[in-house]
Design brief:
GO terms for molecular function: DNA binding. Keywords: DNA integration, DNA recombination, DNA-binding. Belongs to the 'phage' integrase family. InterPro entries: CB, DNA_brk_join_enz, Integrase-like_cat_sf, Integrase_catalytic, Integrase_recombinase_N, Integrase_SAM-like_N, Tyrosine_recombinase_XerCD. By secondary structure, the protein is mainly alpha-helical. It folds into two domains: about 15-115, DNA polymerase, domain 1, CATH 1.10.150; about 145-335, Intergrase catalytic core (hpI Integrase, Chain A, Orthogonal Bundle), CATH 1.10.443. It is built from 13 helices and five strands. The protein has helices at about 15-20, 30-40, 50-70, 80-90, 95-115, 145-155, 165-185, 190-195, 225-240, 265-280, 295-305, 310-315, 320-335, and strands at about 200-205, 205-210, 215-220, 285, 290. Strands 1-2-3 form a three-stranded antiparallel sheet. A two-stranded antiparallel sheet has the order 4-5. Strand 2 and strand 3 (about 215-220) form a beta hairpin. The longest helix is centred in the first third of the chain and has 20 residues, at about 50-70. It is elongated and about 65 Å long. It starts with 16 loop residues before the first helix and ends in an 11-residue tail after the last helix.
């Protein structure tokens, strides 16, 4: 790789004709991007990265390259100081720590790919970390109480925009199964999006649901009442003249244009948010904002409240690290064992 005279911030000195002449010796941005695309398909997750992961990494790298272009920085000559500048840019843009961490990870993979093909001499992201989050443990755990959860299930009713009694029956059962899987079984939205009818199985009287999660495939034991609802949901779809196979999506769109096609992740969020809004639970106050992911927190919290062990809930939610599950314990203990409440004084 040619050595060029650069300004302190890695920009070419415009008066240096020799440097401008040697730009052609650098790998082009296209060559680096092509190298990264091959890496995404063959190396990330041992060649089995999800579509969402690939899309996210590609998007984060594209944002970084756009930032480089705006500042006339050559991606092949980026330094660790440049990466820190980009981190500062993300901080100033009020990006959260997890968002910054994911961006740095994607860029790190980008340079790992380029380094393997000898397009760069080192990986400038190595050693650069995302800023620490300043938040209280458990502060992001928002969940529904048992009474609120019952209110959600009781609110499921036909949507009058949907024509035909059979389609309305499908909609009610679809929504009840979706809410049940997320709030009772702790399923993630992405797992619901990827689930197929063939992922539901039965053995010796027990019903199971195989879930394709973020980084692994896991199987949950279904509650008998939820398994029965799924059976009714499947039968309602058959009665509505839908041709079902093992690869048919578990959750479908009911719009006229996309009927029986896989319900999108946005669609799943729209369904859940609709019932939260209907019950007045979407935004209850400034300290508590319920989202579709809160249903998963609900499953974990209520399970612990009702006597399940930490290990049982860890397996139940598919947490690889027990520290992740322990956050729910912190939430409960802070409520039940508040030292201030033990001070016997009239206030």
């Amino acid at each position: 790789m040619a050595i060029r005279r650069l300004s302190k911030d890695n920009r070419l000195e415009r008066s240096d004709r020799h440097s401008l002449a040697t730009v052609s010796t650098l790998p082009t941005v296209k060559a680096m991007v092509d190298c990264f695309e091959k890496y995404l398909n063959l190396t990330i997750a041992d060649g089995h990265a999800s579509v969402d992961t690939v899309k996210t990494y590609r998007s984060r790298v594209h944002q970084f390259l756009s930032w480089c272009k705006e500042r006339e920085l050559y991606p092949a000559l980026i330094t660790q100081d440049n990466i820190k500048e980009y981190r500062k840019h993300l901080v100033d843009s009020e990006k959260t720590s997890p968002t910054i961490r994911l961006s740095l990870l994607a860029i790190k993979h980008f340079y790992t790919a380029c380094l393997a093909d000898k397009l760069v001499k080192d990986n400038p992201v190595v050693g650069v970390k995302a800023p620490r989050e300043k938040r209280e443990i458990g502060s992001t755990i928002n969940y529904l109480s048992l009474e609120e959860l019952q209110q959600i299930f009781n609110s499921v009713a036909p949507t009058y925009k949907i024509r035909g009694d059979k389609t309305r029956q499908v909609q009610v059962l679809r929504d009840r199964v979706l809410l049940g899987c997320m709030a009772l079984q702790g399923c993630r939205s992405i797992e619901m999006y990827r689930a197929n009818l063939g992922d539901v199985s039965e053995s010796y009287g027990q019903h199971f649901l195989q879930l394709d999660g973020k980084n692994s495939i896991r199987t949950v034991v279904l509650r008998p009442d939820l398994a029965e609802e799924i059976a009714q949901y499947r039968q309602a779809r058959r009665s509505n003249k839908e041709k079902l196979t093992f690869q048919s999506p578990l959750f479908i769109s009911l719009s006229n244009r996309r009927y029986a096609q896989r319900l999108s992740r946005r669609g799943i969020g729209h369904v859940v948010d609709g019932y939260l809004e209907k019950c007045g639970l979407k935004h209850t106050d400034l300290e508590r904002s319920i989202s579709p992911h809160s249903l998963r927190h609900t499953a974990g919290t209520l399970s612990l409240q009702n006597g399940s062990s930490l290990r049982e809930v860890q397996d139940f939610l598919g947490h690889a690290d027990p520290k992740t599950t322990a956050v729910y314990t912190h939430v409960l203990s802070s409520q039940e064992n508040n030292p201030a409440a033990k001070i016997e004084v009239n206030f």
